[in-house]
Amino acid sequence: MSNNLIYRETQKFGLVCFWGIGLCWAIALGVMGYTYFNLKTAGKLSNDFYIPFILVMGVLTLVEILFFSARLVIEVRESGIFIRYIPFHLHFKEIPLDTCIKVQAVSYSPLGDYGGWGIRYAPKGRCYNCKGTQGVKLEFANGKHIMLGTQKPQELEAAIRLIWKEGSPRL
User: Fold this and answer.
1) CB 77, CB 4: distance < 8 Å
2) What is the pLDDT of residues 79-124, one digit of tens each?
3) Contact 46, 17 (CB under 8 A)
4) Domain count, the chain
5) Does 37 map to a domain?
6) Is residue 58 assigned to a domain?
7) 152 within some domain
């Protein structure tokens, strides 16, 4: 089978994520500044104070960079469905459709159903998402499912249906 591209979507985390991390950064900076002022005023400031400050700010900065660079790429090709969550996946990962029994565009709660956004593993199955509450759910014969978060659920479902035959395994 050919590898022609039928559908491609690239998503990034929304601004709410950046504001949330920025708020944590500001709170940490405020707490560290307050502590610095109190220790300096009391004459108890030592060089050990700077180590946790640098560590906390460094970790928050790295997390912000990670969120800023992360993106989810979903491709539907004639040969199958491929996903890549940059920077976590170095290459595209194929989602096998040979045991898929149902494909459906759905609304869902990322936080309630999967515990958040990103690459999520839950008792219900796996979920790959960046933002929003829309997705395409792939159900498999073993009872598991994969949720693909998307901003265009009907388009993604239609593209998957072009390469998948309902109720019959791919050979």
Assistant:
1) yes
2) 889 999 998 889 999 998 888 899 999 999 988 888 888 899 988 7
3) no
4) 1
5) no
6) no
7) yes
Query: What CA–CA distance (Å, rounded) separates 1 from 139?
Result: 23
Residue 148: partners with Cβ closer than 8 Å, 6 or more residues away: 74, 81, 83, 128, 129, 135, 136, 137, 138, 156
Asked if 94 contacts 78 with a C-beta cutoff of 8 angstroms, the reply is no
Given a contact cutoff of 8 angstroms between Cβ atoms, the answer to whether 146 and 125 are in contact is yes
Q: Is residue 45 in a domain?
A: no
Q: List phi, psi (to 5°) of 45.
A: -75, 130
E strands present in 57-140: 71-77, 80-86, 93-95, 100-107, 118-122, 125-129, 134-140
Domain of 128, in residue numbers: 87-163
The C-alpha atoms of residue 59 and residue 63 are separated, in whole angstroms, by 6
Question: What does the mean pLDDT of the chain come to?
Answer: 84
The CA distance from 18 to 31, in Å, is 20
For residue 28, which of 2, 74, 70, 61 has the smallest C-alpha distance? 61
Cβ pair 121, 105 in contact under 8 A: no
pTM above the 0.90 mark?
no
Q: How far apart are the C-alpha atoms of 158 and 57, rounded to whole Å?
A: 45
